[in-house]
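Reopening this ticket.

The earlier resolution said the output was attached, but the attachment link was broken on my side. Pasting everything inline this time so it's all in one place.
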Amino acid sequence: MMSKALKKKVRGLLKSLDVDQAIQELQRFPPQKIINPLFSFLQDTDQDIKWAAVRAMGVIVSGMADADMESARVIMRRFMWNLNDESGGIGWGSPEAMGEILAIHEGLAEEYAHVLLSYAREDGNYLELEALQRGLLWGINRLSEVRPHLVQDAAPYLSHYTQSADAEVRDLAKQVLNTLSRK
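Inline output:
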């Protein structure tokens, strides 16, 4: 199947089916073939497609890690590169996908939770754009729901977000802090 045709098929699956059905269909493809289309849909302006791609990326990369951990690490490094200023990109959808992957796969979570948290730290890889901060806080919250032990010490790095000028950032920060306080 041609790359353009595959991308169109993946988009159609993400848009037309419920997410669980779409993921089941996507799992029939070799992961290496559908990773690039999924990366592109993390940036989609259609929020339904974006969030379906986030969920699908979590499942697909987790499956890759089960079969070949190094191939999944390559994907994680790609997210990190996308969030790096030197990449020339912005990294839309990357923190959300990272959080979803880490929530699903314990091995990757053990290796990369600290990296995800570093994007919240002003002394780390701090993300300045509020739109990226929203995705980051969503990703941290997703991880904290499943693996709170990996983010339990993050509260000091997250509390300043409760004072953000962006209402969604404030709300997500409060949500993460509430999740952490319950665990």
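Reporter confirms the inline version is readable. The chain is about 70% helix and 0% strand. The CA atoms of residues 20 and 56 lie 9 Å apart.
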